[in-house]
Design goal:
Order of helices and strands: HHHHHHH
Distance between the termini: 22 Å
Oligomer: single chain
Radius of gyration: 14 Å
Structural class: mainly alpha
């Protein structure tokens, strides 16, 4: 998605989330919902992906992921908040989400996923 139009990307992710939910692939729909939320926040929309797709707030979504021990999903949520905070210049917010992510959901020294690579880039 590097360099892609965010409006077009939002539409594409929306279709993928709906399709995953239609086929009852919640483990696929959940991280896509986080990425959809990140995309619409970068666009500047006030829309709430979590209420659209899962009929809950972002906090409830995150708490459910924690309760289900969905560490990868929790890491993605933290990473999206970290990314938004960096783009907005909110370093206090970035530190908060960096700390939550690394204290509870760290990948250690061997990140094998795209979110781990982005985290490595943001962390320096």
């Amino acid at each position: 998605a590097c360099g892609e139009n965010l409006l077009k990307l939002e539409e594409t992710i929306r279709v993928y989330v709906r399709r995953a939910i239609q086929y009852q692939q919640i483990t696929t729909a959940s991280p896509l919902t986080v990425h959809h939320s990140l995309t619409i926040k970068l666009i500047g929309s006030k829309e709430d992906s979590y209420s659209i797709f899962f009929h809950c707030s972002e906090d409830e979504f995150f708490q459910k992921a924690q309760w289900n021990k969905g560490h990868a999903l929790c890491r993605i949520v933290c990473q999206s908040h970290l990314l938004i905070a960096v783009y907005k210049g909110d370093m206090d917010g970035a530190v908060k989400w960096y700390t939550i992510r690394d204290d509870k959901y760290s990948l250690g020294t061997n990140p094998r996923f795209a979110s781990g690579l982005v985290a490595g880039f943001l962390d320096g």
